[in-house]
Specification:
The complex is a heterodimer. Chain A contains no helices and eleven strands. Chain A is mostly beta strands. By secondary structure, chain B is mostly beta strands. Chain B has strands at residues 4-7, 10-13, 19-25, 33-38, 45-49, 53-54, 62-67, 70-75, 85-90, 97-98, 102-106. In chain B, a hairpin with a 6-residue loop joins β9 and β10 (97-98). Chain B starts with a strand and ends with a strand. The chains are: A mainly beta, B mainly beta. Chains A and B meet through β5 and β10 of A and β5 and β10 of B.
Chain lengths: 120, 107
């Protein structure tokens, strides 16, 4: 059973860049019929898909965040990462890294989530 | 973006009841519809994919149906462990979008 674990700062100042990493175990980020996704959830609210990266490094982003988001793959470490720049209070949320099973991604494995607070 | 509308937003029911949650897409998504269960403080868990296929390990009291724009999640004989928030999600195209959730509470 694949396992995903998010890591990164819990507190980010406004206007700064958020960097999160997802470490994947019992599976490979560079093989299989998967996309690797980031999804976030503000406290007490619903789920928002941020973007995804394929096993070959192709990316798709949510247009609502596209200009501020970068997702990358590090196959040597079996990780994928999220960067969001120009953070504001509206970006405060639990961030999840998630495996999407193709062909039309089903989010079948989730990390436990990491809370990111944007505050000075 | 495809908008997903769930109803009701909250629901009170008793152990043993049968409940139905509906999800409507703003355009046809054929059967590219998934259902998730989220308990407080936990990540969502996949219950049903492709509108009606039960994920491995999920109890058979959960079932899904529908195609096009209208979908349902049915839980027969509610168990104490089923009280949670349920989300539908379309995987027809990006950006993938979720419903706002249905909170199932104990009556």
């Amino acid at each position: 059973q694949v396992r995903l674990q998010e890591s990164g700062p819990g507190l980010v100042k406004p206007s700064q860049t958020l960097s999160l990493t997802c470490s994947v175990s019992r599976g490979s980020v560079s093989s299989g019929d998967y996309y690797w996704n980031w999804i976030r959830q503000p406290a007490g609210q619903g789920l928002e898909w941020i973007g995804r990266i394929s096993t070959t490094g192709d990316t798709n982003y949510n247009p609502s965040l596209k200009s501020r988001v970068t997702i990358s793959l590090d196959t040597s470490k079996n990780q994928f990462s999220l960067k969001v720049n120009s953070m504001t209070a509206a970006d405060t949320a639990v961030y999840y890294c998630v495996r999407g099973l193709l062909p039309n991604p089903t989010f079948d494995s989730w990390g436990q989530g990491t809370l990111v607070i944007v505050s000075s | 973006d495809i908008q997903m509308t769930q109803s009701p937003s909250s629901l009170s029911a008793s152990v043993g009841d049968r409940v139905i949650i509906t999800c409507r897409a703003s355009q046809s998504i054929t059967t590219y519809l998934n259902w998730y269960q989220q308990k407080l403080g936990q990540a969502p868990k996949l219950l049903i994919h492709a509108a009606s296929t039960l994920q491995s390990g999920v109890p058979s009291r959960f079932s899904g149906s529908g195609s096009g724009t209208d979908f349902t999640l049915t839980i027969t004989s509610l168990q104490p462990d089923d009280f949670a928030t349920y989300y539908c999600q379309q995987s027809y195209n990006t950006p993938y979008t979720f419903g706002h959730g249905t909170k199932l509470e104990i009556k």
